[in-house]
Design brief:
Elements (H helix, E strand, L loop, with lengths): L2 H13 L13 E2 L5 E2 L8 E2 L16 E2 L6 E7 L4 H16 L4 E7 L8 H29 L6 H10 L4 H9 L4 H13 L4 E2 L1 E4 L2 E4 L4 H20 L7 H6 L8 H9 L18 E2 L6 E7 L4 H5 L1 H11 L3 E7 L8 H13 L3 H10 L6 H10 L4 H9 L4 H13 L4 E2 L1 E4 L2 E4 L4 H20 L7 H6 L42 E3 L5 E7 L4 H5 L1 H11 L3 E7 L8 H29 L6 H11 L4 H10 L3 H13 L5 E2 L1 E4 L2 E4 L4 H13 L3
Parallel strand pairs: 5-6, 11-12, 17-18
Antiparallel strand pairs: 1-7, 2-19, 3-13, 4-6, 5-8, 8-9, 10-12, 11-14, 14-15, 16-18, 17-20, 20-21
C-alpha cells in the first residue's frame, strides 16, 4: 500500500466522528463547509489499513501535562471557543486519571477564523503560561472552557485575576500580541499535518479527529502502550519512546493527497461482482430474487448502525430478498476476529443469527469471557464452543471472507453487494431500495425467460468482476479535464421535483426556488437557520424556500421530529409549521417523544390526540422516505443541510455570501 493510500485508509479509522461526529454526540469544528453526510460512504464505513503516523514536534514551547517520559504522547490541536473542543475536555481529564504516569497531553493552538474570541483567548492562555508555567496555563485553560460563551477581553482579564496573574503584564501581552507568533506557528503546523478542524489529536503520531467517545481514545492508547512496552523491553529508553515511534512519520499531509482523495477513481455502481455465497450463513429463502451479501465486523459501529435498515429491507421485501453475512474483521478492532470465530461456531451449532444479534447488542464488551457468556445465554454447547475458540477452528473461514472482501475492493465495513452490485456504508433505506428495486426488475425478467428462481443469483453473477471496477479507469475520464464523479460539476442542475404541498417561505411563484433538505438533530442544519432567515429578509418574494426532510439515520430522534413537524403542517399550515420548526432547532438536544408533544402543546391550536396518533402510527414516515428517495433518484450525493437553488447544489452551513452568489446568478439568468 502506498503511503498516500494508507493515509486515506487510516484517516477514516479516526474520522468516524468528524462529519459524522454527532454519531455519538461528538463532533469537530471545521474551517470549511459544515455538513453532516450520510450518502458519502466514507462517512458510514470503517476502513482497514496499515498504521500511519505523523511526526508532530513536541518541545518545551508547548503547554503539557503528564510525564515527559510517558509511554503515550497525545498532541491536541484545539481552541477555546469550539463547542466540540469543550465537549471533549472531560474525556481528556478522565484519560489522564486512568493512564496516570503513562500519558502526556501536549496543547497546540488552532483557533478557527469564524470564532472571533478564540485567538485572543489563546493569547491569554499562553500569557498565563508565560507568567506561571504549565500549572497556570491549565488553570486558566479550565476557566476558559467553563466560560466558552464569555471570552470577550473584559472576561479574559477577569479570569486572569482569578488565577493570580500580573494584570498589567497580562494586558500588555494582549495589547502587543506577544504570543501571536507562537499561535501562528501552531496554526501553520496544524495545516501541514492536515488538522484543519478542532479538536484534532495525534496519539504517538496516530490521528484521531473530533470529540470522540472515550472508548475511541482508549483503543489507540491501549494499543500504543502495548507497542511502547515492547520497545522498552527491547532497550529503548522511556524518554525516547515518542521520538522512536514517530521518527519515520509523515511531516506533511500534502494538499495533493486531499486532491487525490477527491479525484480518486470512483467505484462503478453498476458493475456486477462475482460474490459467491459459499458456506456463509444467510437468512431469507435460497430462491430469493435478490441476494444481499454484507461484509461486516462485530466491533464496527457503522455495521451495527445499519442492522435496523437490513431488518427493514427483510420486512419490506419478504421472500424476494436473502441476506448473506460474511466477515471482514478490521485490524484495528482487536476483539473482532475472535467475535467472528464465535459467530461461526454458533452457526455450526445452529444459532448464528442469535449470536450475531447478541454481539451487536454488546459491541463494547466482546472479550473471550464475554463471548462465552453470550454463548451460554443462547444455549450453546459450552465445551464445544470453548474448544472451537481455543483451537481457532473457524479462523480460516473468517480470514477467507476477509480476503474475498479485499479482492473485491470492500476494504471497509459494512460493505454490501446486491446481486453483485456494490453499495458501501451504513446507507439509509432509500439507497438500498433503489438498487433492490432495479435488481428485482432484472431478476423477474430472467424468471420470465425460464430461469428458476433458485438459479437467478448464480446466473446474474456468473460473469461478474473479481476485482474492483471503476467509472473512470486509468487513462480514461480520470486523466482528462472532465469533472471527476467524486467532484461533481459545480454547475450541474439536479432535477428534483418541487412538491405542491410543502412548508415554504417567500413567494409562492418565484423565479428562484430553494429546496432545503435538512435534519432537525443536525447541528449544522441548526447553524444555517439564521442564514435562511437572512435570505428570506434579503430577497422576500423573489425566492421560494421549501423545506424538505432528510433525517440522517444516525440521529435517533431526527425522523420522529420530522414526522411531528409534518403533522403540525398538515393540521395547522405553514405559519405554525415554521414556528414549530424554530422550536425544534432551539431545542435540538431535547427531541425525544415527550418533548415533541410538549412543543406541539406550547404551539397551540394542535389536536393533540391526532398528533399523538400520527406519531404512534408513523403516518408520515413513508412521505419522508420519499423525500430522501427524490435525492437518490436525482443522483445527488448529499448530507445535511443541502440546498438545491433552481437545481444547483449548495452543500452545508455556508455563509450568506455563498447563497447570495448563487441566488443572484439565478435571478439574473435570462435577463
Amino acid at each position: 500500500m502506498s503511503k498516500g493510500s494508507a493515509i486515506v485508509a487510516i484517516v477514516f479509522a479516526f474520522v468516524c466522528g468528524v462529519l459524522v461526529g454527532n454519531l455519538t454526540g461528538s463532533g469537530v469544528s471545521r474551517e470549511q463547509t459544515d455538513v453532516e453526510e450520510v450518502a458519502d460512504p466514507t462517512n458510514a464505513v470503517e476502513e482497514g489499513g496499515a498504521i500511519e503516523r505523523f511526526r508532530v514536534p513536541v518541545g518545551v514551547g508547548q503547554p503539557s501535562k503528564g510525564p515527559k517520559d510517558a509511554l503515550v504522547t497525545m498532541v491536541m490541536f484545539s481552541e477555546f471557543q469550539c463547542p466540540f473542543c469543550g465537549r471533549v475536555e472531560p474525556t481528556i481529564d478522565d484519560l489522564m486519571k486512568e493512564y496516570s504516569g503513562k500519558l502526556r497531553v501536549v496543547w497546540r493552538n488552532n483557533p478557527l477564523p469564524f470564532h472571533k474570541d478564540a485567538e485572543p483567548a489563546a493569547e491569554a492562555a499562553l500569557e498565563a503560561r508565560a507568567q506561571g508555567g504549565d500549572d497556570k496555563f491549565w488553570k486558566y485553560h479550565k476557566i476558559l472552557f467553563e466560560n466558552q460563551r464569555e471570552l470577550g477581553r473584559e472576561n479574559l482579564e477577569k479570569y486572569a485575576g482569578q488565577v493570580g496573574l500580573d494584570l498589567e503584564k497580562f494586558k500588555n501581552a494582549l495589547d502587543g500580541h506577544t504570543h501571536k507568533r507562537n499561535i501562528d506557528a501552531d496554526k501553520a503546523l496544524a495545516a501541514r499535518m492536515g488538522a484543519r478542524g478542532t479538536p484534532a489529536f495525534f496519539i504517538n503520531g496516530r490521528v484521531l479527529s473530533g470529540a470522540q467517545p472515550k472508548i475511541k481514545f482508549k483503543e489507540i492508547i491501549d494499543d500504543e502502550i502495548s507497542r511502547a512496552e515492547k520497545l522498552v523491553k527491547s532497550g529503548v529508553a522511556k524518554s525516547s519512546i515518542y521520538a522512536t515511534l514517530t521518527k519515520d512519520g509523515l511531516t506533511k499531509a500534502k494538499e495533493a493527497e486531499r486532491e487525490r482523495k477527491e479525484a480518486r477513481r470512483e467505484p462503478d455502481p453498476n458493475a456486477v461482482y462475482k460474490v459467491p455465497v459459499g458456506k456463509s450463513y444467510a437468512k431469507g429463502p435460497k430462491d430469493a430474487l435478490v441476494t444481499l451479501v454484507v461484509f461486516s465486523d462485530f466491533q464496527c459501529p457503522f455495521s451495527n448502525r445499519v442492522n435496523p435498515t437490513i431488518k427493514q429491507i427483510m420486512d419490506t421485501y419478504g421472500k424476494d430478498v436473502r441476506v448473506v453475512y460474511k466477515h471482514n474483521a478490521l485490524p484495528f478492532h482487536k476483539d473482532a476476529p475472535l467475535a467472528a470465530e464465535a459467530a461461526q461456531e454458533a452457526g455450526a451449532q445452529g444459532k448464528f443469527w442469535e449470536m450475531h444479534d447478541k454481539m451487536f447488542e454488546n459491541q463494547r464488551t466482546l472479550s473471550q469471557a464475554d463471548l462465552e457468556k453470550y454463548a451460554q445465554e443462547i444455549g450453546l454447547n459450552m465445551a464445544r464452543f470453548k474448544k472451537a475458540l481455543s483451537d481457532h477452528l473457524h479462523k480460516a473461514d473468517v480470514e477467507q471472507d476477509g480476503k474475498l472482501a479485499a479482492s473485491l475492493g470492500a476494504r471497509g465495513t459494512p460493505s454490501f453487494f446486491i446481486n453483485g452490485r456494490s453499495l458501501r456504508g451504513a446507507q439509509p433505506f432509500p439507497s438500498f431500495q433503489r438498487v433492490i428495486d432495479e435488481e428485482l426488475v432484472k431478476a423477474k425478467q430472467f424468471v420470465a425467460k425460464g430461469t428458476p428462481r433458485s438459479q437467478v443469483y448464480e446466473k446474474i453473477i456468473a460473469n461478474g468482476a473479481t476485482s474492483p471496477q471503476f467509472v473512470n479507469p486509468p487513462g480514461g475520464a480520470a486523466d482528462s479535464d472532465a469533472p471527476s464523479p467524486q467532484r461533481p460539476d459545480a454547475d450541474k442542475i439536479y432535477n428534483i421535483p418541487v412538491p405542491q404541498k410543502a412548508p415554504r417561505k417567500g413567494g409562492r411563484v418565484a423565479k428562484v426556488v430553494i429546496q432545503e433538505f435538512s435534519d432537525y438533530q443536525c447541528p449544522f442544519s441548526g447553524r444555517v437557520v439564521p442564514t435562511v432567515k437572512e435570505i428570506e429578509k434579503e430577497y422576500g418574494d423573489k425566492v421560494s424556500i421549501i423545506w424538505r426532510n432528510y433525517p440522517l439515520p444516525f440521529h435517533k430522534n431526527a425522523k420522529l421530529a420530522a414526522e411531528a413537524a409534518t403533522e403540525v403542517f398538515v393540521q395547522a399550515g405553514n405559519d405554525k409549521f415554521w414556528r414549530y420548526h424554530d422550536m425544534l432547532f432551539e431545542n435540538q438536544k431535547s427531541l425525544e417523544r415527550e418533548s415533541l408533544e410538549k412543543y406541539a402543546q406550547q404551539l397551540g391550536g394542535i389536536n393533540m390526540a391526532r398528533f399523538k396518533k400520527a406519531l404512534d402510527d408513523h403516518i408520515h414516515a413513508a412521505a419522508i422516505d420519499r423525500e430522501m428517495e427524490a435525492v437518490t433518484k436525482a443522483e445527488a450525493r448529499i448530507g445535511t443541510p443541502a440546498f438545491f437553488i433552481n437545481g444547483k447544489l449548495v452543500s452545508g452551513a455556508q455563509p450568506f455570501s455563498k447563497f447570495k452568489e448563487v441566488i443572484d446568478e439565478a435571478l439574473s439568468a435570462g435577463k
